[in-house]
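Researcher: We plan to redesign the surface later, but first we want a full-length starting point. Tokens attached.
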């Protein structure tokens, strides 16, 4: 691994977007948001249909590296931080998060930004900004998209911690696995899904997020559009499993 705060690796049909500051438990540096945006764009341009979002060294992300932000990262950080979350929301590839050990504050926002989360049994997700006088807008955005208000309140208002079992029970985590198996499970899922028919995952994801027009019909809104899958069913679909 190099000293860059974010690394990418492109494989056949899938890629890895890696937080790479293991000596700081993958805390985010001022350049991390920009590098995440550039890395995501490069993986998509390279044809990745599934993206594994993970941390190097067995930890997902401990939040912002406060020591590096004391001088003020300024508007560039804020713009790129909002930008990477917009990019992830618009991303046509399926994003799988490998939640190892913990995801704290800004790290929690990245974990919640994933479409599918593989959580370790001992993993913890914390949205603790309220306790330190911060607003947590990206966590709030994803919680509004992903969770019931009661769940969002437990995390955002109570500065709460949720372990892997709680995340799985509440539907925020797709799979709950032993801590040592998180990365292998997430990688196996990425490889398997990348082998599915091209365009299908992007089409389903787009349909899930397509708004229903005022006075419209949900059944019309989710119809596949050109280039978004919609092929006739086949027995291959029987291989779908978490």
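Model: Full-length starting sequence:
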């Amino acid at each position: 691994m190099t000293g860059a705060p974010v690394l990418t690796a492109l494989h056949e049909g899938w890629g890895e977007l890696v937080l790479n500051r293991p000596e700081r438990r993958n805390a985010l540096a001022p350049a991390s948001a920009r590098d995440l945006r550039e890395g995501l764009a490069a993986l998509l341009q390279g044809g990745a249909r599934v993206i594994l979002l993970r941390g190097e060294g067995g930890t997902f992300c401990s939040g912002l590296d406060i020591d590096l932000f004391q001088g003020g990262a300024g508007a560039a950080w804020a713009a790129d931080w909002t930008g990477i979350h917009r990019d992830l929301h618009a991303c046509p590839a399926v994003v799988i998060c490998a939640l190892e050990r913990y995801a704290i504050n800004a790290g929690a926002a990245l974990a919640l930004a994933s479409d599918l989360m593989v959580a370790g049994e001992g993993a913890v997700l914390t949205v603790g900004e309220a306790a330190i006088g911060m607003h947590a807008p990206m966590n709030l955005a994803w919680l509004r998209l992903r969770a019931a208000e009661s769940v969002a309140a437990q995390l955002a208002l109570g500065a709460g911690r949720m372990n892997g079992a709680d995340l799985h029970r509440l539907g925020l985590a797709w799979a709950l696995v032993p801590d040592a198996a998180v990365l292998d499970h997430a990688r196996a899922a990425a490889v398997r899904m990348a082998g599915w028919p091209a365009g299908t995952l992007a089409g389903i994801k787009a349909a899930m997020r397509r708004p229903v027009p005022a006075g419209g019909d949900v059944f019309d809104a989710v119809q596949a559009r050109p280039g978004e899958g919609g092929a006739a069913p086949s027995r291959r679909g029987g291989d779908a499993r978490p």
